[in-house]
Input
Amino acid sequence: GPLPGSVVPTHIQHCFFVQELEDSHHFNQALLLEVRQKLSAEMVEQALSAILSHHDALRLRFTRVGAGWQQLNAGPEGTFSLQREDLSGLEASAQLAAIEKVAAKAQASLGLEHGPLMRAVLFDLGPERSGRLLWVIHHLAIDGVSWRVLIEDLETLCRQLLHGEAVALPPKSTSYKAWADRLLELARSEALALELPYWLSEARGHVRPLPRDKDGGENTIG
Output
């Protein structure tokens, strides 16, 4: 069942917070899915509500405490609120612009302290075009691997609802809280401490740089 309460921040989460980003709430991953079957907004909302209840990490909340941050799992919050956008009266080019505008606003609307960490928008593009589902989740709670799990869950739930079946996901596996605790336990373990001399040895500090084609080039990836 739901697992509310304190959760130890993982190392990668700590690395995020020490950056002190100006808009730390606006650091997310998002998918724009094509909805090929006619799913009612109520059906999608019900499926996303079940996902929010099933996956504790989607209900994380973060509070600044002194120089650090405290992480909590909020309890189930009831029905997930799905945003609906009817763009059926617009031309295709105008629909694209409207989707981009709504998507930008949705991605900037996440909240670390009070939530939500997840937003979703269902776009109606008219009877002749497949709909779109924008799904936005803060990067503190999502990565590339996690999306595969959530998409499979969404498909499972929508299929169940389409066939009038009871909404049910597979049993929960190891919780995010338990995984974070085990990471901290490992980091503080004697076994890991014994590896420090190897990783911090002087020989490892003097490594020839990899060859490169050009010297002095700017790093313009940003």
